[in-house]
Amino acid sequence: MLNFSREKLLDLYKNMVLIRKYEERIYFLFLEGIMPGTIHQSHGQEASAVGMLYDLQKTDYMTTTHRPAGHALAKGVSLKSMMAEMFAKTSGCCHGYGGAMHVGDMAVGAVPAIAIVGGGVPLGVGIALSCKMRKTDSVCVTFLGDGATNEGAVHESMNGAMIWKLPIIFAVENNLYGASTSIKQTTTIENLAERAKAYNMPAEIVDGNDVIAVNQAAERAIARARSGSGPTFLELKTYRIGGHSRNDTCGYRTKKEEAEWAKRDAIKVFGERLVKEKIASRKELNAIDEQIEQDIDEAVVYAKSEPSPVAEDAFKNVYVQEGLI
Length: 325
Ligand SMILES: Cc1ncc(C[n+]2csc(CCOP(=O)(O)OP(=O)(O)O)c2C)c(N)n1
Ligand SMILES: [Mg+2]
Known about the structure:
By secondary structure, the protein is an alpha/beta fold. The protein has helices spanning 6-32, 46-53, 69-75, 79-86, 120-133, 152-163, 211-226, 255-263, 266-276, 282-305, and strands spanning 61-63, 140-145, 168-174, 177-178, 181-182, 203-207, 232-237. The protein has one domain (6-315): Rossmann fold (3-Layer(aba) Sandwich), CATH 3.40.50.970. The strands form 2 sheets. It has a 5-stranded parallel beta sheet with strand order 1-2-3-7-6, sandwiched between helices. It has a two-stranded antiparallel sheet with strand order 4-5. The longest helix is centred in the first third of the chain and has 27 residues, at 6-32. The structure holds thiamine diphosphate (TPP) and magnesium ion.
């Protein structure tokens, strides 16, 4: 399959399965009522997370959205620290302060997620500016949704990034909906990539459910950013299999549309391709799936047994005005 090594192909598969199974488990733990907070899951969008981030280094950065779990895992945040964060434990990747919508770990370049729609984008541009000013060769991938491309801050960010030729990639996950609103009601253009033209920014439209296509587009964009040639806008066409958040039954879209996209499930299609092209047997893929289930079992046991923060911790790591407490 292309000129990818077998190791990389299996890694791409494994990383996508990890995200899918992690989110499935979180969903059930959440329904059990033993997990605080809320959830926005990315079932169906795993190829964009893994394809975009596979070739980045720890010294590269990633900013994400209210739907961050896949991006965080793909950037290298550890499974155990993600799980502990979901149980609001001190050993969580944000020491229990963040929860599902704010996961991240600066040690691996995963900037803790920002749930304000479009909010991670100016931050990503600032990070890219810092990388350039400090003369590092680091790059930043900033994820945003189709809905976020309507935010003013996103357009200011794109303009600034082009003026300063910053090492940033705008990875737009176009899943056709912003919460319950169809993209048809929020924009009159067919392809969001057209928006990049207004800033003279190179853009590509990519099948966001094809991990190889995403990874190749990411490689081109990363190379451009690293070499000092500036930003790229990637429109990744994809679909969220589940609801927008925990209690969304998706009444705003048709069963026919859901069934069409189910046929294009990134993990299913890629797994079949690996088998067909004799990269791996079905048995080998099943063994990967089982190992991931075990890793998740262990992460849940670990997370449950870790200590919870104490009341005084509420005032650690946050700015508290003197005299207020
Ligand atoms: C500035 C702002 N407005 C509204 C919301 C509420 N909200 C959370 S997610 C979301 C939809 C975002 O859609 P999109 O950017 O397409 O991302 P997706 O949910 O599809 O991943 C909205 C409106 C918010 N968090 N921030
Ligand atoms: Mg969307």
